[in-house]
Amino acid sequence: MNMEHLYEYVVFTQRMSFSRASAELHMTQSSLSKHIHQLETELGFPLVSRYNNKVSITTAGGHFLNGLVPLLESFESLKEECLSLHEHSQSELRILEPPYSDQASFALFGLLVDFKDNNPYIGFKYARIHGRSTQEALLSGKIDLVLEYRYGNVEEILDDYKKRNLTAVHLLRVPVLLWCDHQHALIKSENIHIGDLRTVPIMTASDIYSPMRGAIFELCEKNGFKPLLNYDSSTLKVEYLFASPPESVYLLPDGLQSDSRMLSRTNMVFLPIEEAFFESFVVLGPHCEQDGSLGRLRDFLETRDCG
User: Fold this and answer.
1) Do 70 and 195 lie in a common domain?
2) Residue pLDDT, tens place only, 267-291
């Protein structure tokens, strides 16, 4: 059964005139009359009564019309949904694998699960980058989303991202802990302050992508000194976390103090640092307007009270 013939029948019943209906449908009267006759043949009952140049809807035709209209409306709605699914069926957002299993990454995963529930046709692919910064990866489109750690005023950081043509959403504040050898000199301090790190080597990965390096620089420089960094060339996270010489320390999210891998290093201890914390941000690439899926994610995140 031709769907167009069904629509033509509905238009005819609204005009009750072959001339007016055919004009609205941009077709000849004879074609419209032929199509309705074909419908009647397929259905096995008359839809229209023609008598003395007058037309009317038959009882069966009226009953058929009452059931047909909502069916056609449902069909149009279903078609739109299917077209949307088809357009987005290959849509996949590339997410930089979060560097740590901490409260910020768990919060991000929770948001992505909620987004996926409402946008089942958009997939996620977790990726890693080597030899380029997160900003380069975002601006080039190699990565669509990253979780970043920063130090400072949230509004000022958001403005900084905006100036770099990136969209950022504040996620939450992450307390920072010192992770060091159990015989490190800082253990003797009753309270450790950020200034105590002035002459202490701080571990960082030598790869251009180091998730904490930027935040460490901001933390130290905004407290009046430049960090003394100990660059490690390990390419695997587990190697990096097991590479520190005794005099060096790590600055890590406090959520890692319950990580089994960290606890396996019995010679290392976590220590609190007074007033030390990083702000975590979900950062999106600059292609939100061109990429409908990325734009949807941006709109979703901006309506959530992440912090």
Assistant:
1) no
2) 899 999 998 999 999 999 888 766 7
184 phi and psi angles, rounded to 5 deg: -65, 150
Q: Is residue 226 part of a domain?
A: yes
Structural domain of 118: 92-302
Indicate the Cα dihedral angle 268, 270, 274, 280, nearest 10°: 120
Q: Report pTM.
A: 0.68
Q: pLDDT tens digits, residue range 59-105? A: 998 999 899 888 888 888 888 877 766 665 557 889 988 878 888 99
Q: Domains in the chain: how many in total? A: 2
